[in-house]
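cache lookup: miss for this entity combination. No prior model stored, computing from scratch. Input as submitted by user K.M.:
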Amino acid sequence: MGNVLEVKDLVKRYGKLLVLDRWNLKVSKGERIVLLGPSGCGKTTFLKIIAGLEGYDEGELHMNFKSLGFVFQEPRLIPWRTVKKNLSFVSDDESKIKEVLKMVKLEGFENHLPSQLSGGMRQRVNLARALLNDPDLLILDEPFSSLDLPVKLKIMDDIVELWKESNFTLLMVTHDVKEAVYMGDRILVLSERPSRIMEEITLEEITLTFHGDRILDERFLKVEAQIIKILSSF
Amino acid sequence: MKTIVGLLLLLLVWEISALLLGSSFILPTPIETFKALIHELTKIETFHAFLSTAWKGFFVLGLVVLLGTLIGLVMGINTAIYEILRPVVMIVQAVPVISWLALVIFLWGIGWKGPVLISFLSLLPISIFTTAAGVRSIDKDLLEMVKVYKVPKRKVFKDIYLGSIVPFVVATIDISIGNVWKVILVSEFLCGDEGLGVLISWARQYVDVPRVYALTIIAVTFGIISERLTRRFVRRLTRKWGMS
């Protein structure tokens, strides 16, 4: 499988402040990678570099994908535009808009304004917008941080389902260990700023054979405990 | 009901004050004023003056909103243009009406152009600065989203920039409609050839104080009605825009 992303000794500074300290990373097509690290360690900065919103100072970044979907931390919807118009802002393909609304279970809410939706529904619109261009790489920037647990679990399940149906690569950042274990089949644990990739934990074998609710599964709880141990050792 | 009580209270205070002062040259009684008001309302001259003031007011309002929004939009989008034009607009804002008066009288003499220009220049800076502030306060997160999805500029302008300034244009209309009649009347008073301001000026010259008050009541009533109607119209428009 080809690499969607390849990062070699990537360095990012804001003035004198070193944020990313020699990151090395390879992401294969179809993987579900989670970058897990404390707040302020540069996770979002890394995503912004991939999305072309920020530059980097040293190292190499090779990207091999045609289209990118970005699920932001906050929904970033146009408040005075309906759900449908928020989506048509990104793509004029009417049938695709219908399709993604169905995918994120928001049929019937096309003409609602963002203010008329719950937090979870707004985040689903955010996800729908990211899926509009059939992304090869779907980036999720702490997308569940403002959601309550039942909504969070539901959306996480839906994203994993979408990932199974589609063929995109998923790259998510979070500071929440449970989210990381729930969503990833490979977790990269980051140190505090200046951040480095400290550990790599692979759950692929478990996730491939797994059916049911991850949050209560013993194997995942073990991984969770392992990560907590790593994080507390920094 | 409360409004009627308020108006009755005002009339009572007015009547008592007029009786205490005892001079209709300073403060005529409400009855004297209402007699003058009825007399004014039956005159075709008042009707013509009213129409003259009204068209000037709405013309200035339209011009202020249109040009103010356009200039404000450009200033809001482009920081360099904002920095260049800001001092100019600030100076225009600070120039007293009386200074514009000298300029317009030398330019055009007495007529409709003077009141229109003076009112326009008095209200334009508010419109420009309000719109520019609106554009400059556009959610940066939305602009970042636009970059990620490489949305065409035409769409960004229409859906983000224009959408963002709608509340500020509404605010401009709200502020301007409240002030436009006052500015128009003052400038008509100073350099107009027709309009309610001119009639007030004549009434003052003939020391016809009840008439001054009567004309003021006409102007105030018209101001309040037009303000309410305009606000209702603007609200309906913004509802269509999907803002409320």
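stored under new cache key. Residues 153-191 of chain B form the longest helix (39 residues).
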